[in-house]
Amino acid sequence: MSSLKDLRGSAAIAGVATFGCGETPGFTDMELLARSARAAVADAGLKMTDIDGLCTASASAAMWAMPVVEYLGLNPRYIDGTMLGGSSFIAHLLPAMQAIRSGQCSAVLVCYGSAQRSSALGRREISMARRHLDPQPYEHPYEPAMPVGAYALAASRHMHEFGTTREQLADVAVAARAWAQLNPEAFMRGPLTREDVLASRMISDPLSVRDCCLVTDGGGAYVLVSAERAKDLPKKPVYVLGNATAVWNRQISSMHDLTVTSASQSGREAFAMAGLAPKDMDVVELYDAFTINTILFLEDLGFCAKGEGGRFVANGAIAPGGKLAVNTNGGGLSCVHPGMYGIFALIEAVRQLRGDCGERQVQGAKTALAHGNGGMLSSQATAILGTEEAL
CA 221, 231, 361 angle in degrees (round to 5)? Predict the structure, then answer.
């Protein structure tokens, strides 16, 4: 009987692209997706006619894969429209690897686009539409400020239980901005200090506006092929060494412990598949929708013990030149966040392993972790990537 370890390194990401990250008026979700999709396919040295697998998801449509197939003119033999929120595009990896290994398809396009910032619809209208698609009977009737209220609840509990401080949360935002200042694609690149974060407008105590992710437009895509095929394509292959997804809850009120997420499961299983450990990671790309996310995921993924995340990130430890390179593009806090961020974390991990990141490049990076989060600390998906040296 085969095991997940048999899939380790069997597939590689051969092409990546982003488009319209930041503010791109005049583009729809589909147009942003299509621009990034076509660019990723070209980056892989392929044509759209070579794509016979598709993975995509949207917070705005229940059957999003079908209009994407139609718009891109594809005829895929493998389709995955699983919607798990922002973690979807990292969760899509393992099923796509299995489809490639089985011979069902040979080249899988994973793509996303959202005009959340520039949409003609107001943000309240978008929020109401999403609530209709995703009803939560125990929370939505009270109209809490979501999602920020959910993450503020988790942050408050972490502060109460472990002594985490607002200063430590602020250091997460400051580190993300320091990386963004090295990234020409980042939406916010101005100076940011701990004092700036602490003095910024409070949104949901203890989270200020600078503790919260951006609201941007943007499209992102990547192409997955077999390891053998990747060797014949123009760009340096980035191999998928491990991948796992876990879901313990949908609503924040259903979490058994507000300080522990199912990343503790997805991370453990992804590392086991890869045969690696947190200490082996050169680059870490986390879904930082809010500053508390980075702290929670560093703990749950094993980079530090539970309760030590605040101290782990303090005083520039995850900023350029720190002890661990985290969210090297600037993350959702300072680079891009068009509703669902997971695909951008994965793209940045690939770019780092290719050595394509210019001033922000982590020298000698051979391994990377990309982690996605969906909903209110609901779905968690972890990918371990590596260069040929890591196989």
Answer: 55
Phi, psi for residue 374 in degrees, rounded to 5: -135, 150
Task: Go through the domains of the chain in sequence order and give each one's CATH number.
Answer: 4-119+214-390 (3.40.47.10)
pLDDT recorded at residue 301: 98
Within 8 A by CB and 6+ apart from 253, the residues are: 138, 139
If you average pLDDT over residues 120-128, what whole number do you get? 56
Whole-number Å distance between alpha carbons of 373 and 245 = 10
Contact residues for 360 (Cβ-Cβ < 8 A; gap 6+): 179, 182, 183, 320, 328, 329
Tell me the pLDDT tens digit for each residue of 303-342: 999 999 999 999 999 999 999 999 999 999 999 999 999 9
pLDDT at residue 119 greater than cutoff 80: no
Distances in Å between the Cα of 380 and the Cα atoms of 124, 286, 310, 374 are 26, 11, 21, 7
* Lookup: tokens for 310: 């605040």
Residue 366's pLDDT is 98
- CA angle in degrees (0–180, nearest 5) for 332-94-283: 40
CB 237 within 8 A of CB 389: no
Q: How many CB atoms within 10 Å of residue 161?
A: 13
What tokens were used for 214? 């951006």
